[in-house]
Amino acid sequence: AKARDSGGRELQRHKICMAKMDDAWQRAAFVAGAVAATSLNHVTACEVAPPVPQRPPAVRRVRVAKADEVAEGELKQIKVAGTPDGASEGAILLARIDGQFYATGASCSHYSAPLAQGVAAQDRMHVVCPWHNAAFDLRTGQPVRGAGYQAIPTYAVSVENGDVIVDLPKTMEDFVVPAMACRDPEDQRLFVIVGGGAAGLAAADALRQEGFTGRILLLSEEKHLPYDRPVLSKNLAKGSDPASLSLRDAEYFEQHSIEVRQNAKVASLDAAAKLIKLMGGEEIRYDAAVVATGAKPRLLPIKGGDLPGVMALRNPEDATRIAATCTSGKKTVVIGSSFIGMEIAATLKRRGCEVTVLGMEAAPFERVLGKRLGESVKAFFESKGVKFLGETGVTEIKQEGTSLKAILKSGEALACDAIVVGVGVVPNAGFVTGAEKARDGSLITDECLKTSSEGLYAAGDVATYRSIHSKGQPMRVEHWDVATSQGRLAAKTMVGKRESFDQTPFFWTSLFGKNLRYVGYCMKFDELLVDGDLQKLNFVAYYCHQNEVKAVATMGRDPVAVVAGELMRMGRMPSVADLKAGKVST
Questions:
Q1: Is the model's pTM score more than 0.85?
Q2: What is the mean pLDDT of the segment spanning 269-277?
Q3: Under a CB-based contact definition with an 8 Å cutoff, are residues 153 and 97 in contact?
Q4: Each residue of 148-184: b (16+ CB within 10 Å) or e?
């Protein structure tokens, strides 16, 4: 998959494959296959048909390409000019799958990435965003995976005398509201969503998108409507304007009869009795519920870990507090060198703070990405003026006037104005009883995200689920992309459409403007293959275990990460031998 550089030179993202492939790799190139038949969930509801998206009236027919000039599996972005009578200009995505043409909006509804630079998954009829792994159905435009909540428009396509003709409306919208079922007052079922984050919102949306007409109640302990939480660690100023982060507004929820209760703290959920009790004493009996409460920041179990100047980031209020405390020139210590810690460190440095990162490992991200890649990230941060102290622990934090002192295991005292903690999270499911839990307190589910208790489901950081990517062993993933996708799949299971969650875990982060993407599930690796230059942060890194590629990390090589994710999902990732033999080019 050849990359477009900053000069805009031509790229070809339409192939799921990469150049220089042998026959076996070429057969895996175009993501193909059949979706296995799924059984119905007989417990909650019989399967219902999802609503059909409605297109606006077409007012013009536009020739967009010659049919024989569009290759099988190709994705092309085509600009459409406006007309003198007021029809708007715009852009469409043209795809050719199994000889059939499809036309949709050209951009991902998450952060407007060009979908033509993504990949087509034939077995699912999805187009996948090259940046953050969101996916949309090419036939309906409906969001089906990841962080794109809005749908993309679709247009009728025909081939006449060798020309591809697309019927377009007067106004071309970039994104549209997904097709949603209407509330039926006679449907007395109550489905409750506990948690107003990524998974909770996705579940609420998907219930209506999958045709559920009963009552939907979303309980969120936060005072805000669901918002784009990952932005906070990259832009603390957004904490003072949480409305700008909202993923849906109040009008949307009202229009689609989704009841949202903010500041609704759940005291307990009795899975056996299907009973939820709120802190205020109210009791709610449900027909089905999904727990999507995510995880809470892990606290420092040391003396002084609860001092006022020691902060963690979870919500807009936390971001505002950190921003107010860590102003330009302030000495700030970040404890934790994984993703959240390093994101905060980069953000604070950009704000003009003097930043020191304390990590338990020798290099940032070492536990996940390994020391070689971690050392490259460390050098990059140091070039930006961030100090990194690895293999360092904190035993105590002391208050001295308006300043703090972090006492290190070595005995050294590190004076600072503020401390921000990013040492991981713990699943937020302590209020749930009557359902099987893992050792970390998360809820154990099957491959369809159903817990051990009838009518109870879990999605996101709070769920430990069985997956093909862990050879059937339970796994828990703390990624925004996974949380949104699991929210959607849990909703499908709730309405009787059992599907296994087979999505390859996908994660992204942004560090001083450099984007790192990681796809796969790799608890340990015995070999790291690198194509590119780690020091220049332009590479594809393959994490291998027992002669199998388990995960891929990339920087500056979009859309290789989403390509790898699709091939892993299908079990068609190139072999380690092929990578070593140079049969795969990225």
A1: yes
A2: 98
A3: no
A4: bbbbbbbbebeeeeeebbbbbbeebeebbebbbbebe
